[in-house]
Structure formats: structure tokens, C-alpha cells
Amino acid sequence: MTDITIIGAGVAGCSTAYLLEKEGFDVTVVEKDAVGGLLREIEFETGYHCDSAPHLLFFDDEEEAVVGELFSEFTHIEPREFYAATYPRGDLDDPHHYPVSKQNIDRWDDADRIREELEQAPGKTDAEFFEEYMKKQVGETLYERYNRSYTEKHWGIDPKRITGDWFDFKISFPEEEQEFFGGGAYYPDDKYTDILRSMIADCDLVFDGVTGLETEGDRITAVETETGDRIESDLFVSTIDPSIIVDTDESLEYRSMVILGAHIGADESLFPDHCDWGYFPNHYDFTRITDYEFVPQETPAGEYILTVEFPCFVGDDVWSSDESWYADYLLEFLDEQGIGAELLDAKVRRAPRAYPLPVTEEIEKFERINGKLSAYENMFNLGRVSTYEYIWIKDIVQQAYKTRENILGELRTEADD
């Protein structure tokens, strides 16, 4: 039987492990921290839970059906509508549509000038960098009010430098209010952590951190771990930062995130009844607040489960703040908004590698580092961190299926030889 070692027990590692174990491989999953990765829930002492950010399942029912099929093996999923709002003035009494719609124009005193800019704008066209792409689509004024400051706060870099192939399918400018993801979104009945644990129930699970590789020529023979162990295998799949395991002096930079999970009692909901979360393209240190009413759990009237996302870099002031600072910041914000609130419980989750930085120099650095890893013929990699791509659950699951097919194809080729 062929042995396969998978590094990382997030959605990439667990879905790949499940698919390969079903094919008869002997699969070992090595995880440094806890099963779930970025999908791991925040658990409150009060008995409730939430995602560390809203993790929705959305996919095309025809072209991406395998995503729903995989999760449906472990939980029940049904389509539902998700809506978001944005607050360019920072006032919860002034919600604007998100995705930003053309109806938002009428919320501004200079609506006529904005429409003139739109008439001059080329519309949705290709562009190498984010700022150029957005200005061509929405014009200067709407870009400044809805996109520029939010993007700079989220990524921590000048939007003029942001590049990638994700603009076209992650940014839209509809005529009127639109469901998030344009419909076709799902949320599971069960916790993601429980789903992923079920996926790897028949695999060997080792809690240890992988630190390096043992190699012979163009093949990896074993991975080295933090505890000094070595794990031998025939094939390897990595879902972690390649700079951790290859011999390189370079390291990749990520936009990090501190997520406050808060169970509060409050006078009122933060958002309109149909909205699930809100974006804040203004002076606040956070970018998004989510209300987890959509999670299948019952909370008493007047109580809310929230997450508040604080983008940062590891080591800066936001990242290094005491845990109580984040809850105090939320309560001060709510007080400014005229919402009386009481903190019932709070948890802080730090994600050092939340987002690969979509800038040319980091992408080129990744290609150099990953080139060393891909030189080994028995190593495969997938997932947001390992491929240094800004991708979602649906993309990662499809990568898992592709990885399975690549492994099976290579083994068939070896057998034919």
C-alpha cells in the first residue's frame, strides 16, 4: 500500500486526506496546532460558537458540484440568502448596499457628479492593478468612498500595488442591492471542525509541526518535525507555507488578522434585519463585523454572537495588543453608535497567515521558493497558504480533487513504465 503524508489539517489537508484514503492509500495527517485551520470555530464559555470569519459554502451547482457533494457526505447543507452592508460614513444608521450598487449613488449629495464620472468610465475592463481596475469600473469618487480606504486597511498596502487574477470574480457593481455571491451560498448544519475531523477519521493524525525535508535526489524520503521525529512516506502533500519546509533564506509575507469573537447582550441588532455582516471603509481599526444569526444555534432575544476582524501585520500595535483591548474597542464603538451593550464572553483568535499579499514582489518570491519544492517529484501542494493564492473553500476543495487525480495519474504512469 502506498503511504501518503499530508502536512496540515485545514480544509485543504482534510479534504485531500479523505479523498485519498477512499482510494486505498495509507494516509497520515500531520498538524501543528488543531484540526480545522482557518475554519476552526471560536467556542465561547457561554456554550455558543461562531466562525473566525463568515465561512460560507458557495459554488456553481453544475461546474463546481463536487464542493456540495463532498460536504453533503458529512453534513446537511441548504441554499440560503446572505446580504451585507457597507458603512462608508461609519454610522450604523446609514447602511449602503454591498456589493456596492448603483443605487448607492443617491445616498450622496454629489450624485450628479458621480453619474458624470460613471459615464466617462470605461466600465469593467482588464487591468493589472486593483486601483486601475476599480476606477475604470466605478470612477474616482465611488472608488475613494467605498474601495480605496477599505482595501488599504484590509491589505496594509497601497491599492496601486495590488495585483492578481481575482478582481473579476470577487468585485461586482450591480444596479441594485444584490445577494452576496449572487445567490448559491450554503451554510452547514454542523461545525466545520467536526466535519473535517470526520473526513480524517480513518487516517492517522499526528500533532507535530513539520520543519524540514529529508531528500534523496529528486524525491523526498521523510519530513522532519519540531519534536525531532521523522515521518517517512512514499508521497507527500503540503498545505503549509513552502518557505517553512524548503531550504531557503527567503520568507513570505502575509496580511495577518486578529479576530475578536464576542457574545454580547445589546439593545438592538447592529445591521438591518436581512443583513449578516457589515464592512467599514473608514477610520476604525476593524474592517468587518459579522452577526452569526445564520449559525444553527438558538440565542436568547437581545443576545448576539459577533466577530470583529482587525487586519494587521505580525508584530504591529494591533497584533500585539492585550486581549481585553479588542473587546473594549468593540464596546466603545457600540457606545458611539448609541447601542447599549454588555459583554457576556469574548475570545481572541490570531491568524498570522490569513491572506497572501497580492503584490508582484511577494508573488515572484513565492515562485522562487515553490520552485524548490516542486522540484521533488513526490510532493504535491494545495490550499491558500501553500499556493499563495487568495482563494475560497470551493477553490480549495476543487484543488483537492485535482490533487487526487494528479496522484492517481502519476501512479498509473509509473505502473505502466
What's the average pLDDT?
A: 94
Instruction: Give the low-confidence spans.
Output: none
Major sheet attributes:
7 strands, mixed
Structural class: alpha/beta
Number of strands: 20
If helices are DSSP runs of H or I spanning 4 or more residues, what is the number of helices?
12
Radius of gyration from the CA trace? Answer: 22 Å
Give the CA-CA distance, first to last residue. Answer: 18 Å
What order do the strands of the largest sheet run in, or round the barrel if closed? 8-7-16-17-18-15-19
User: What best-fitting shape do the alpha-carbon axes yield?
Assistant: globular
* Helical fraction: 25-40%
Q: Strand portion, in percent? A: 25-35%
Quick overview:
With 417 residues, the chain is α/β, with parallel strands linked by helices.
What does this structure look like?
- The chain has helices at 11-22, 65-72, 111-120, 130-155, 167-170, 192-199, 242-245, 317-320, 323-336, 360-374, 384-387, 393-416; strands at residues 3-7, 26-31, 42-43, 49-50, 57-58, 77-80, 84-86, 96-98, 185-188, 204-207, 210-216, 219-225, 230-232, 235-238, 254-266, 277-279, 288-291, 303-312, 341-356, 379-381.
- With 417 residues, the protein is α/β, with parallel strands linked by helices.
- The protein has a seven-stranded mixed β-sheet. A five-stranded parallel β-sheet has the order 10-2-1-14-20, with helices on one face.
- A hairpin with a 2-residue loop joins strand 11 and strand 12 (219-225).
- The longest helix has 26 residues, at 130-155.
- The mean pLDDT is 94.
